[in-house]
Amino acid sequence: MVHVRYDGRSVDLREEQLRVHAGMSDREIKEQVARHFDLVPKGLDFYVVDRTPQGDLVVRPEAVYG
After folding, report:
1. CB 3.0-4.6 Å disulfide test: which of 12, 17, 22, 30 passes with 44?
2. pLDDT tens digits for 11-39?
3. For the whole model, what pTM was predicted?
4. In which band, very low, low, confident or very high, does the pLDDT at 45 lie, cut at 50, 70 and 90?
């Protein structure tokens, strides 16, 4: 499962829908997410890809503290 937080929304997608797998780099995963949402890849530059212990992926904005 890939959980994407973008533009105030949270969307859960299957890896097959995005054509991604856990072995891909963060850049490759963000490029596929950008394609899915019709975005320029640069629009996800400040996003991170978290990998959960269960094998899911979370694509979310970078957290800024302080």
Report:
1. 30
2. 999 999 999 987 899 999 999 999 999 99
3. 0.89
4. very high
| CA atoms of 54 and 61, how far apart (whole Å) | 21
Query: For residues 59 and 49, what is the distance between their CA atoms, to the nearest angstrom?
Result: 5
How far is it, in rounded angstroms, from Cα 20 to Cα 22?
7
Nearest to 36 by CA among 58, 57, 56, 20: 20
- Token code pair at residue 3: 């959980």
Q: Which of these, 18, 43, 44, 48, lies nearest to 32 by C-alpha position?
A: 18
